[in-house]
Amino acid sequence: MAHVELSLSEAFVPAARASTEPESDNVGQWSSTVSRADEPCLLIDADTRVVAISTAGCELLCLGEPAGLIGRPLLDGGLRLLDFTANRCELTEAEIDKIPPLLALSSGRLARGLLRVQAASANSSDATVDAISTPVLTDGTVAGSLTFFSEV
């Protein structure tokens, strides 16, 4: 015969931080993690400038070397996004605003979607990439977005 026992107790509430230091810069903290990551990932600030990108992220998105992208706007760094039609047209400005890294910035929420990235050379095929982005908060406001990519 099964036996079920229920016990009620007060909820554990962790003590609040008693620190007098200002809240840390989460974008700065994530920067070193992203730049050293083995996974394809990207960190942009609220102005859509690349703060950090992993080497694997550069390779997957056909962007060259990470050092050449730092401080540049995400869409001025050579990222070529295409629609999913047979014509392979570049995304319109309205469609670009909906890509996960930018949508996480504007909405302040988790964003996910597929991206079609144009290959670096004409001989290579385009990459389809699953992107999951989360806003990065500093002092309760969106200060950037962190995106992880996976080739589909």
From TrEMBL:
It comes from the Bacteria. This is PAS domain-containing protein. The lineage of its organism: Bacteria, Bacillati, Actinomycetota, Actinomycetes, Micromonosporales.
